[in-house]
Amino acid sequence: MVHAAHVSRPADGSAVPRVGFVVSKAVGNAVVRTRTKRVLRHVIAAELGAVPADVDLVVRANPPLAGAPTPRVREDLRRQLHQALSRLR
Predict the structure, then answer these.
(1) Which parts of the chain register pLDDT below 70?
(2) Please, are residues 88 and 4 in contact by the beta-carbon 8 Å criterion?
(3) Contact, 22 vs 59, CB < 8 A?
(4) Are strands 55-61 and 18-23 parallel, antiparallel or unpaired?
(5) Are the C-beta atoms of 52 and 7 separated by less than 8 Å?
(6) Among residues 25, 62, 10, 13, which one has the least CA distance to residue 40?
(7) Residue 48 falls in which region: left (phi positive, over 0), alpha (psi -120 to 50) or beta
(8) Could you tell me which residues are beta bridge partners of residue 40?
(9) Order of strands across the sheet with 2-6?
(10) CA atoms within 13 A on the CB side of 77
(11) Could you say which of 11, 26, 27, 47 is the most buried, measured as most Cβ atoms within 10 Å of its Cβ?
C-alpha cells in the first residue's frame, strides 16, 4: 500500500521526494522483513523520477508481499503509486 502527501520544501532546488517503508512483524521474521525492504527500495528507486519533489511517500508492506516475485511487486507498486499520486492532484 502506498500513501502520498504534499509537504513544503525549501525553494533552493535541492528538494527530492522522500520515501519511508513500513514492514511489520506480520510480514515475517527479521530476514524476511529485511529482504522485503530491499526489494521495495530497489523497485521504488526506479519509479522516483515520476514523483514530484514536494511529495513524501510511505510504502507499507502487507504479508503476501514477502513471498511475491520482484516483477509482481514492481507492477503492484507502480499501480499503487500511480493511484496515490493521482489522488494528490
Answers:
(1) 9-14
(2) yes
(3) yes
(4) parallel
(5) no
(6) 62
(7) alpha
(8) none
(9) 2-6, 55-61, 18-23
(10) 30
(11) 27
Note the pLDDT of residue 73. 92
- Look at residue 69 and give its three-state secondary structure: coil
Q: Is 20 helix (H, G, I), strand (E, B) or coil?
A: strand
Residue that has been written with the C-alpha cell 522485503 in this structure: 36
Tell the residue number behind the cell numbers 511475491, with chain if given. Answer: 68
Q: Which amino acid appears at position 58 of this protein? A: V
Q: Quote the cell numbers at residue 88.
A: 494528490
Please state, in angstroms and as integers, the Cα–Cα distance from residue 43 to each residue in 11, 24, 61, 63, 89, following that order: 28, 19, 13, 17, 23
At 13, give phi and psi (nearest 5°): 85, 0
